[in-house]
Amino acid sequence: MELDAGIMESAGSGATTTMQGLVASIVETDGALRSAQTKLEGKRVMLENPVREVSAGEQRRRQVKSALSNRSILSNRQMRKLGMLDVDRKEIKYDLFVPIHQLWLQYFQQTTADSTAASVLQSKLMKADLHGAIIVVIRSRCPSLIGQRGIVYRETQYTFQIVTSTNATKVLPKQHSVFGVVAQGCLLEIFGNNFLYRPSERSARKYKAHGKSLRL
Predict the structure, then answer these.
(1) d(CA 32, CA 204)
(2) C-alpha to C-alpha distance for 155 and 192, rounded to whole angstroms
(3) 94 has pLDDT over 90
(4) Distances 122 to 79, 177, 206, 210 between C-alpha atoms, Å
(5) Domain hosting residue 100, numbered range
(6) What CATH number did the domain enclosing 125 receive?
(7) One GO cellular component from the entry (predicted)?
(8) If pLDDT is split at 50, 70 and 90, which confidence band does 47 have?
(9) Does residue 115 lie in a domain region?
(10) Is 152 in contact with 131 (CB distance < 8 Å)?
(11) Is residue 45 one of the residues assigned to a domain?
(12) pLDDT, tens digit, for every residue of 122-167?
């Protein structure tokens, strides 16, 4: 036991000496060394940078942004995998989706090959993925919906679900409504009845040109 105690004392003394040597290499005098030791007593030293916690909403935004960067229509399976079918509305914040809207503008610009012709824009819009687009209700059988505006964070067969600039989430029925989509410096008019399909099904359908466009 005496031998063990001696070894422990020696080890402890060695560790203390090493620590003092490290501190002494930073401070120049014994007085400064004692002052530094006093200040360090009872203090916790952060050895690594703390990992910033990523909220579920932020993580979902990154996943959706990554999916949209592939410029393809999201299928129900993909949306389910990304958690877009069971979104907690409390986590939906407008600021989180502004970068996705910017990415959507780039995606749509590439889809239309930079064309500004209204007929081309509307034709491409009918088959485009609208996740990240800014839409506004222009006409509707439900007067309270008119003027509702926001970024699409989810699209179903019968609805557009948006988040407004005030972080409110809204469910907009497609049927019997006319929407405006901001793209390429225009407000493009689309009929909700033409969108009563799943996003992945729209890309394979043929549509007649309807609606108007307004240069912004």
Answers:
(1) 76
(2) 12
(3) yes
(4) 25, 16, 12, 8
(5) 56-215
(6) 2.30.30.210
(7) ribonuclease P complex
(8) very low
(9) yes
(10) yes
(11) no
(12) 878 888 889 999 999 999 999 999 999 999 998 888 999 999 999 9
Element at 2 (helix H, strand E): helix 2-24
DSSP state of 188: E
Q: For the chain, what is the domain count?
A: 1
Tell me the C-alpha distance between 112 and 201, whole Å. Answer: 19
Percent of the chain with pLDDT over 90: 30
Residue 35, domain member (yes or no) = no
Pairwise CA distance, residues 102 & 104, whole Å: 5
Report how far Cα 98 is from the mean position of its chain's Cα atoms.
8
- pLDDT reported for residue 134: 96
Element of type H or E holding 111: helix 94-111
State residue 121 phi and psi, 5-degree precision. Answer: -60, -45
Q: Is 205 helix (H, G, I), strand (E, B) or coil?
A: coil
DSSP track, 19-69? HHHHHHTTS-SHHHHHHHHHHHTT-----SPPPPPPPHHHHHHHHHHHHHT
**Assigned domain for 205 exists:** yes
- What pLDDT sits at residue 214? 47
Contacts 24+ apart (CB under 8 A), 15-22: none
Residue given tokens 């209700």 in the structure block? 137
Nearest to 129 by CA among 95, 101, 89: 101
